[in-house]
């Protein structure tokens, strides 16, 4: 929730936001340390007390400030920019956003004078019956002249109903001094409602997902069923990307032009190039170059890098490995902590035994190598360029370029020419 608010505020002001947090803010500070500064509110004594905490941390040379709640993720930059424009045009010390609604609920009402100017704000718990009939509410979004705010914030009185300090009392103080108060009215579309329970969180999540998907659709992305496409805010999709139903794209994922992400796929913090096809697979913190086919039911674990034109098929798993251009890994196999040369073939059932119980060890497979089905590569081990392994081989030592390893444990010989009859000859252990 807070991330969206921080981004909207930062974009509107071109300044680093200041976030007011509770005395136990470690999680929030860790999450947003790179994009925001922090002030601590020792006790939850109302919005005005939170602003007091912020002013203590605000640099002395700041002339104006926006104040917004941290639980309104649907807040848009354009509204904050409009509020700042109205504030500056009016020469106001205080400006605010209001919403006309058919259901004011427990929110503060805006009281206007006969000329239609904002006179004061009354909290629902302190309002009279007549005031409760007012349908214009305070959205809790303000612009302030900071010098005036510093001077008057100490003049607020605790609410007789709750004992809290309400920022809304500043409206009456500004009017009493004869200052104009600018306001920006918006429709009641639910975008400025705060989140207080899981039902409101689910509603905001749905609305945000619609907003994100619409932006991509207008940018040339195809979504066969937008209602099932879950795309995080930081995901980058090029034009002509296609998302099939039930796709999840998380974190800082980037998808190149002409790529199709097939049904059932989930990508997290992964970059995929142009013209790829990802189908019913999971990709985590990995890099995929152009014209790659992955899936169905493949898994790229963190640190994987797949070269141009590679093909990974059913139940192919890769972890912390580089597969160069044109590698074929079509069927049930595991490559961990490995480097696989260009155009190498990885047979079904191939396993890199990369963990010896204490350390993770590397496997190197040379360019154009042919790894036969059910091969066990016991790392550390190197298969030379153009080398081959026979079906079911357990390779415990390096295989020289162009040679054949077969058996358990594997032995070395020259590969037979295609079609030559007879069993392989015995050779030295490998």
Quick tags:
8 helices; alpha/beta; Spore Coat Polysaccharide Biosynthesis Protein SpsA, Chain A; 12-stranded mixed beta sheet; 20% helix; 430 residues; UDP N-Acetylglucosamine Acyltransferase, domain 1; single chain
Mean pLDDT: 92
What's the CATH first level of the largest domain? Mainly Beta
C-alpha end-to-end distance: 57 Å
Major sheet characteristics: 12 strands, mixed
If you compute it from the alpha carbons, what radius of gyration comes out, rounded to the nearest whole angstrom? 31 Å
Q: Within the CATH hierarchy, at the fold level, what is the topology of the largest domain?
A: UDP N-Acetylglucosamine Acyltransferase, domain 1
How would you summarize what this structure contains?
The protein is of the alpha/beta class.
Task: Describe the protein.
With 430 residues, the chain is an alpha/beta fold. The chain has two domains: 2-186, Spore Coat Polysaccharide Biosynthesis Protein SpsA, Chain A (Alpha-Beta Complex); 221-413, UDP N-Acetylglucosamine Acyltransferase, domain 1 (3 Solenoid). The chain contains eight helices and 39 strands. The strands form seven sheets. Strands 9-12-15-18-21-24-27-30-33-36-38-39 form a twelve-stranded mixed β-sheet, covered by helices on one side. Helix 1 (2-13) crosses helix 4. The protein starts with a helix and ends in a 17-residue tail after the last strand. The model is unreliable at 425-430 (pLDDT under 50).
């Amino acid at each position: 929730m807070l991330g969206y608010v921080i981004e909207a505020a930062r974009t509107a002001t071109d300044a680093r936001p200041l976030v007011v947090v509770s005395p136990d803010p470690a999680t929030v500070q860790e999450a947003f340390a790179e994009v925001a500064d922090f002030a601590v509110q020792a006790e939850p004594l109302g919005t005005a007390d939170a602003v007091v905490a912020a002013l203590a941390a605000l640099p002395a040379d700041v002339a104006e400030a926006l104040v917004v709640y941290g639980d309104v993720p649907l807040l848009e930059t354009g509204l904050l920019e409009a509020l700042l424009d109205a504030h500056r045009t009016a020469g106001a010390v205080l400006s605010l956003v209001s919403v006309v609604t058919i259901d004011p609920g427990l929110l503060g009402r805006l009281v206007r004078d006969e000329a239609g100017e904002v006179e004061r704000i009354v909290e629902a718990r302190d309002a009279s019956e007549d005031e409760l009939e007012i349908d214009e509410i305070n959205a809790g979004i303000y612009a302030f002249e900071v010098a005036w705010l510093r001077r008057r914030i100490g003049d607020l009185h605790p609410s007789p109903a709750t004992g809290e300090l309400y920022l809304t009392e500043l409206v009456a103080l500004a009017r009493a001094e004869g200052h104009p108060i600018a306001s920006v009215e918006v429709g009641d579309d639910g975008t400025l409602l705060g989140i207080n329970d899981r039902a409101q969180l689910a509603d905001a999540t749905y609305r945000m997902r619609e907003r994100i998907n619409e932006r991509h659709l207008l940018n040339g992305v195809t979504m066969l069923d937008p209602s099932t496409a879950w795309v995080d805010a930081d995901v980058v999709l090029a034009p002509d990307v296609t998302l099939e139903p039930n796709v999840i794209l998380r974190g800082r994922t980037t998808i190149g032009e002409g790529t199709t992400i097939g049904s059932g796929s989930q990508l997290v913090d992964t970059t995929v190039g142009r013209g790829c096809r990802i189908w019913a697979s999971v990709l985590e913190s990995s890099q995929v170059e152009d014209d790659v086919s992955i899936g169905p039911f493949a898994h790229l674990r963190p640190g994987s890098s797949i070269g141009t034109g590679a093909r990974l098929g059913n139940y192919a798993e890769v972890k912390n490995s580089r597969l160069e251009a044109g590698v074929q890994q079509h069927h049930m196999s595991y490559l961990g902590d490995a480097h696989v040369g260009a155009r190498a073939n990885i047979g079904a059932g191939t396993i890199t035994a990369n963990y010896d119980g204490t350390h993770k060890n590397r496997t190197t497979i040379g360019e154009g190598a042919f790894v036969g089905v059910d091969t066990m590569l016991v790392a550390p081990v190197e298969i030379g360029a153009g080398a081959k392994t026979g079906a079911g081989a357990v390779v415990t030592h390096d295989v020289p370029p162009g040679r054949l390893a077969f058996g358990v444990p594997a032995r070395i010989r020259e590969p037979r020419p295609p079609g030559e009859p007879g069993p392989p000859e015995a050779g030295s252990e490998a």
